[in-house]
Amino acid sequence: MLTLENINEFFADYPIKDIDCNHNILMDYEKIFKIYDGKFGYLSYLEFKSSDDSEIFLGSYPMNGADLWKCKKCGKLKFFYTETGGHFPQTLSVDVDFNKKYLSDPFAKSVSIKAEKYSDFITIFGFSELQNPEKIEKFNGIKVIDKSKSYIFGYHEFNGDIAFNVIADKTTLRKIYDFENS
Ligand SMILES: [Zn+2]
Hints:
By secondary structure, the chain is an alpha+beta fold. It has four helices and ten strands.
């Protein structure tokens, strides 16, 4: 079974790599895999990459909301995702790049907690930068990250809620999701 964690092996073993497909996207393609698994809440629109462009983060917008589709006639693989940045959403497709490594961690998550749970959050999860939120980098542009580290971007307080985006491994994000809902 195809999973986020074995997707590179799946691509390495996939027999059809460089092929031009002239088949009909609406009629001839079928969805074979969904990247977003819903286990840690809302999608984040945060976009990030490493300084080394040989790797693609599946956990970065827009890949975090992409699906992998396969042409039933020729086997061509494409990612499809919805771009929401413009005036209206549009579906875009991008070929799988078999020369790149697709990373299944870290992911971005948007977090929203009640202000009274804020100090508990810092105690449990760390993220010492939350003690000086005025220094947290804003949510804008493409963030260049070190994949071995965790990050907070875009801090907001509104009506007793505190919201920010976290980049971390999926296990940590699931724990944060449980904390949000506890
Ligand atoms: Zn085709």
